[in-house]
């Protein structure tokens, strides 16, 4: 399998892997640690070099695991972490970032995201992010769980247009962003990072995914992931703690769904006909 993986561009032109790896719920159980580290390292070897984590995950234990997993691989990956909204003040982001860097065992985060909108005015968070960029602690900043109205507000602020990405819940069972947020992002050249691309392993027990998977000789999870990856301007960060899942997910990038597959999915997982509020997990 090729490790040369499809990529998408950040607004400044830098390219990141279209398929990455999530880490939520990793690093929480000692008995699974070795498998989780092996899974992440295998994913990087297969080209899934976009790694997503957050200070929230495992109260910092996940960032520590990611740091351990990436030992010797740091320069090969594009590392994303997220700050809690309650830490997103001008000084708070600095402190939170320092703590994340220490846990990750690195001197820089490639993309630092506001995890969701909280009570701190955006201006302050943007100032804090920009100071971190100037200090070389982060290379880009962005947001997560922002709907179109939040994005409009953000990019209108001084410095707000530097936002490099929006990480949102998007998968075949949660298609709301197709109505407005995906077109808005595509028009601005801002990547959407799809989280929970296999719906946190909660895809319906029976659906057209079954027949499509059987037809292609793959799993329903691979069909669901290929469906997300078909979208322009979208990258995806499935979490897989099992090495066989990592390999299947990488293979899903090469799976091309046909017109009849897509039509069957549209008939069951209906595309939005109007505005749906952005969901979050
Ligand atoms: P997900 O990636 O949709 O699903 C993860 C689950 O699917 C795990 O149980 C995993 O099993 C299973 N899985 C993965 N690949 C599989 C395969 N090929 N076959 C069968 N099962 C498979 O859900 P997620 O973890 O919620 O989302 C992904 C990442 O997005 C997170 O880890 C996190 O980094 C990020 N995220 C961000 C936010 C936010 O607010 N910004 C919210 C949620 C998630 P195993 O682990 O056992 O392999």
UniProtKB/TrEMBL annotation:
The record's listing under InterPro entries reads: AKR, NAD(P)_OxRdtase_dom_sf, NADP_OxRdtase_dom
Any GO MF annotation of the entry = oxidoreductase activity
Q: Which domain of life is it from?
A: Bacteria
The cross-references to SUPFAM superfamilies, in alphabetical order and at most eight, read: NAD(P)-linked oxidoreductase
Pfam families cross-referenced by the UniProt entry: Aldo_ket_red (PF00248)
User: Start and end of every NADP-dependent oxidoreductase domain?
Assistant: 18-267
Protein name from the UniProt record: Aldo/keto reductase
């Amino acid at each position: 399998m090729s490790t040369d993986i499809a990529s998408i561009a950040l607004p400044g032109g830098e390219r990141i892997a279209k398929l990455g790896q999530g880490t939520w719920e990793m690093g929480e159980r000692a008995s699974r640690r070795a498998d989780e580290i092996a899974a992440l390292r295998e994913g990087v070897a297969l080209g899934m070099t976009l790694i997503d984590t957050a200070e929230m995950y495992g109260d910092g234990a996940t960032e520590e695991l990611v740091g351990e997993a990436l030992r010797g691989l740091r320069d090969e990956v594009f590392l994303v972490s997220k700050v809690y909204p309650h830490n997103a003040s001008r000084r708070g982001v600095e402190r939170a970032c320092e703590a994340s860097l220490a846990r990750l065992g690195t001197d820089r985060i490639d993309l630092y995201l506001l995890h969701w909108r909280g009570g701190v005015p955006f201006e302050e968070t943007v100032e804090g992010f920009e100071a971190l960029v100037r200090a070389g602690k982060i290379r880009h900043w962005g947001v997560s769980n922002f709907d179109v109205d939040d994005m409009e507000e953000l990019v209108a602020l001084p410095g707000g247009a530097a936002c490099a990405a929006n990480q949102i819940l998007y998968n075949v069972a949660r298609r709301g962003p197709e109505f407005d947020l995906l077109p808005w992002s595509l028009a601005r050249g801002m990547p959407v990072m799809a989280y929970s691309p296999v719906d946190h392993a909660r895809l319906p027990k029976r659906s057209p995914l079954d027949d499509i998977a059987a037809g292609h000789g793959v799993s329903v999870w691979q069909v669901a992931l290929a469906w997300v990856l078909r979208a322009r301007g979208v990258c995806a960060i499935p979490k897989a703690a099992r090495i066989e899942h990592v390999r299947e997910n990488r293979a899903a990038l090469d799976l091309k769904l046909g017109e009849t597959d897509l039509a069957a999915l549209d008939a069951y997982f209906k595309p939005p006909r109007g505005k749906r509020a952005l969901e979050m997990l």
